[in-house]
Amino acid sequence: MIPAVLSIAGSDSSGGAGIQADIKTITAQRLYAETVITALTAQNTLGVTAVQNATPEFVLQQIDTVFDDIRPDAVKIGMVSSAEIAHAIASGLTRVKASNIVLDPVMVATSGAALLADDAVQVLIDELLPLADIVTPNIPEAQVLSGIEITSAADMLAAAQAIQRKMNQGKWVLVKGGHLDDGANDLLLTEHGREVWLHHRRIDTPNTHGTGCTLSSAIACGLAQGFDMQAAVSKAKQYLSGALENNPNMGKGTGPLDHMWEYR
């Protein structure tokens, strides 16, 4: 049977991020993609012009319906635009006993548009973080989740440790370092609190729309296939690097990745 991966996220009408990026990533890994849409966005490579949230009740109904039939082997959570939707996701995933949960705490779009309401941050911390097997914040998101200003590798570690303390025991944290000036190295904090630095060169490209969505859904794919967490993260990083290096140069702003680069 083909492993299934569920993406719970917002829709990106330009196709570069959100649900669309997740479907492309999951398909590129030869797995079966399922979706729960939390919001519709009118957006392109230049920015987000409008957001229409789904109702919490409809989000919960989507989760129940998916799990009643084709139960996913892993779940990726992306854009959660309101506190009520965050609570509905947490309630639904708890009820269906979901496993292999990857939380990408999307707060701001690549273009700079806010995608998470202020009152949803605390619900995300209190209800979704404890459910996650791994959380994948970038530097700005890690600062919000930890309350620690990050300007160095030491700050990244302190923030990752602070975030891990808010999760259930035995969970992982991946702090992405691409926003730091001195490199693009990521910090993976293991379930036992061991720090693993993922060193890689910064890829010189303006087309980074959807990188966080792509990485988190690729990690979920690795978990669905039975890889351990560190291997799933490493495999996902390799896939993302290829998608960045082979960018299609589309759009007038921050362009999308090439999710199907391995097939060209």
TrEMBL record:
Residues 12-258 form the Pyridoxamine kinase/Phosphomethylpyrimidine kinase domain. Keywords: ATP-binding, Kinase, Nucleotide-binding, Thiamine biosynthesis, Transferase. Catalyzes the phosphorylation of hydroxymethylpyrimidine phosphate (HMP-P) to HMP-PP, and of HMP to HMP-P. It is an enzyme of class 2 (transferase). One of its GO terms (biological process) is thiamine diphosphate biosynthetic process. It catalyses: 4-amino-5-hydroxymethyl-2-methylpyrimidine + ATP = 4-amino-2-methyl-5-(phosphooxymethyl)pyrimidine + ADP + H(+); 4-amino-2-methyl-5-(phosphooxymethyl)pyrimidine + ATP = 4-amino-2-methyl-5-(diphosphooxymethyl)pyrimidine + ADP. This is Phosphomethylpyrimidine kinase. NCBIfam families: HMP-P_kinase. One of its GO terms (cellular component) is cytosol. It holds the Pfam family Phos_pyr_kin. Pathway: Cofactor biosynthesis; thiamine diphosphate biosynthesis; 4-amino-2-methyl-5-diphosphomethylpyrimidine from 5-amino-1-(5-phospho-D-ribosyl)imidazole: step 3/3. GO terms for molecular function: ATP binding; hydroxymethylpyrimidine kinase activity; phosphomethylpyrimidine kinase activity.
